[in-house]
């Protein structure tokens, strides 16, 4: 059931549902989350069942503030403290050592835990209202079925899970791609998933270099190659190659959609075209919505013009790379 998110009665109703161990989907500034109280293993099990997600894939715990985060952590290292001070509330998740016996199911049995304090006003109000009802934090993956594109609008969540789920409608998410994840549990900060914050911003706040994930990094579902995939086959290509590919496609009956900065020469009359905005933040904001819309129109191929290889595009390039892995 869709609830208009802005009024406090709605937030309170949703907080009561969370406190009672029910699932609630809610907007964050990145993407919509599918939440359950983090301290209730049976409630958390409903998330894994609804998503079809393997139970050993850890969830992020959403908290009202840094104080609430501490109850889930065995230890918050100084670098995590600095990142939290700089970016919370906001689109950054830190991984730290998990407090023993807390949120084991939400952590997928891992010894570490992902913590995030979102900045979206509805998410904040919900987390605060839930905390007043004794909920220390809300475990929430993106509100999509396993392996599918994250939802950035309430309608996307309903399309994934149907009408029975309680969904707070907060309109389109500002950021549009998931939070940056920095693993602070291994002595040096490791970027597990890029988002809209650039490496330079994260390193400036951390006061030390950010390392890339390697084989020792935990296997996270958001870091699997085939994640975030639309149904259509997606390819990313530089604009020159896009023109060549269009010529080669000729009048093939395949339904094609192109997402590029300018209308490519040689695009057939039946192909769909969507103009890619010039700024990375604008593309991040609309990317998942654009891919879903192409899927809904039944296109078979999605060709995307490769964005520049500059720091601000890292999050978008990462999601496009995963969406094109097959
Ligand atoms: O922006 C976001 O982060 C959104 C919104 C709802 O907050 N959430 C989100 O959750 O993207 P999810 O579950 O779709 O992706 C979280 C990623 C997964 O790849 C998960 O494996 C990883 O975070 N993760 C969570 N806890 C972890 C841990 N303890 N160690 C390593 N990776 C972890
Ligand atoms: Mg996800």
Description:
It is a single chain. The protein folds into two domains: 2-212, DHBP synthase, CATH 3.90.870.10; 233-323, 3-Layer(aba) Sandwich (Rossmann fold), CATH 3.40.50. It contains ten helices and 16 strands. The chain has helices at residues 8-19, 41-51, 66-70, 78-87, 121-132, 154-161, 199-206, 239-249, 280-296, 314-324; strands at residues 2-4, 24-26, 33-37, 60-62, 73-75, 92-98, 112-116, 138-139, 166-169, 180-183, 190-193, 211-212, 233-237, 256-260, 272-275, 301-305. The strands form two sheets. Strands 1, 2, 3, 4, 5, 6, 7, 8, 9, 10, 11 and 12 form a twelve-stranded mixed sheet that branches. Helix 7 links the parallel strand 11 (190-193) and strand 12. The longest helix is centred in the last third of the chain and has 17 residues, at 280-296. The chain binds threonylcarbamoyladenylate and magnesium ion. Magnesium ion (MG) binds next to loops.
List the helices and strands and how they pair.
Layout: E1 2-4, H1 8-19, E2 24-26, E3 33-37, H2 41-51, E4 60-62, H3 66-70, E5 73-75, H4 78-87, E6 92-98, E7 112-116, H5 121-132, E8 138-139, H6 154-161, E9 166-169, E10 180-183, E11 190-193, H7 199-206, E12 211-212, E13 233-237, H8 239-249, E14 256-260, E15 272-275, H9 280-296, E16 301-305, H10 314-324
Parallel strand pairs: 1-9, 2-9, 4-7, 6-10, 11-12, 13-16, 14-15, 14-16
Antiparallel strand pairs: 2-3, 3-8, 4-8, 5-6, 6-7, 10-11
This protein binds threonylcarbamoyladenylate (TXA) and magnesium ion.
